[in-house]
Amino acid sequence: LMERSEVGPHSFTANAIYGPDAHVSGGEVHCTVFGPNANGHHQSLLIGILWPLGRGNVGYGSNVGSNHTGRIPDQETSVGEGTFWGLGSVIKFPVDLTHAPYSIVAAGVQLPPQRITLPFSLITDGPNNMNLLTPGWLLHYSPYTIARSEVKFANRRMAKRHDFYTGWKILRAGVMDMLVDARESLLSAGRRQQQQQQQSGGEGTSGNRAPASAVQGYKTDKAIPGLGANQLTEKGRQIGIKAYTAAIQRYALRGLLHRLVTMAKAQDEVLSAEDVLRHVGLEGVLAVSGHDMETTTSSTSKVNWPVLPWNEEAHTDPEAQWKHQHSLLMKELPSIISSTTNTNNNNISILSTLLQKCVALEQDHAKRVYQSKSRDDARGAKTVPGYADVHVAAEKDSVALAAREEAESVKRDVAVVEEMMGIATGGGGARSRL
To answer: Which of 84, 242, 350, 393 could form a disulfide with 104 if both were Cys (CB 3.0 to 4.6 A apart)?
Structure first.
């Protein structure tokens, strides 16, 4: 038992390691690494689980593993950070979710042996006796869960001696690398469908939008690496691409904004766009802005553990984090620039486009945090008598309000940076007062 971990009444445990702030009560845990801030408060079973990053939850009736496969007890399940095992889920060994952090295995799902590398996914029962996976579901439809978890983990972080095992951001450098790899897998599937369509004499489509032949969806990791033994619809593929792209660009642009705000507070005079771009390593922005999004090679094809957050260089080094954010920003530039209606092609205009994109992504995130909570409010009010009288509505919810305030803070920071550069925004784009 590590610091501030607890095995409560009616629990049975043997040969297990409990990380800081982990809690179990009412279930069985055998031969398991039960990571920090993981919780299992109901009758459930965990055997042979490697869950070093914890932060997840085990629902009632979950059967995660077996002591052997009918031959010898030589199989395990390696679990990703923040995994949620739904009510009555059944997990058959071996399974690897380490590169699919904060994924949800829905109630009653039976998960056959497989490896999944699509983060923030929802796995539910699907047609034809094959589970349906929606990549990035949590990012797109339930960002409230992620925002609340950030607050929850910070408030429940009681361990002192082992605090380095418990304090890290959810959307950090290592997770962003996973999102980049996952998005590339989804994009590559669309490109392969396009090539097949062209070879068969059909009309081509863009790499983002798969042809009509993909309407039946994609099945198993033979169609999309990292899909595991599941199926994915074309709509689900598009949701994943959109969710991963928004998270990656938001992370990179927030790094840019932080760098610029720090610079603005240290300056007493208006600076040229060239000086500002040089300071943030974007002096060559015009040279790359017209190119397509860079294709990357997935690093999740190798079966290995992700870098632990406390071992990430960016975990304690702000310069290393900015270096990582900058590298992602350079790769995302073509996509960001091509999505704007601003036709001006100069340093002032492009930098303003990046700042306004940062504002738009933050406002969209705040909106979706609010919507994901308000949907629960509406459903509860329609179902449970007196629900609205005893539950906090989204309009007053602290998590939703904090997300909105963060969006407003970003907007104010952008105004500070634009003032430093002498940029006036409005109408069709940006114009310099220089």
So the answer is: 84
Sign of the dihedral defined by the CA atoms of residues 299, 301, 304, 306, in that order: positive
Q: Which residues of 362-377 are buried (b: 16+ CB within 10 A; e: fewer)?
A: bbebbebbbebbbeeb
What contacts 270, CB < 8 A, 6 or more positions away?
Answer: 420, 421, 422, 433, 434
* E strand or H helix at 219: strand 218-219
The answer to whether 251 touches 176, Cβ cutoff 8 Å, is yes
Please report, as a single letter, which amino acid is at residue 248.
I
Torsions phi, psi of 406, nearest 5?
-65, -40
Mean pLDDT by 10 residues, the chain (434 residues): 93 96 93 96 94 97 79 87 97 95 98 97 96 98 97 92 89 98 96 83 58 70 97 97 98 96 80 78 66 58 90 94 96 86 68 93 98 97 96 97 98 90 52 40
Residues 6+ apart with CB under 8 A from 356: 340, 414, 425
Sign (positive or negative) of CA dihedral 312, 313, 316, 318: negative
Q: Say what angle helices 173-199 and 318-338 make with each other, to 10 degrees.
A: 30
Four-residue CA torsion sign, 392, 143, 339, 280: positive
The residue among 52, 25, 51 whose CA lies nearest residue 39 is 25
3-state SS, 85-137, equals ECCCCEECCCEECCCCCCCEECCCCEECCEECCCCCCEEECCHHHCCEEECCH
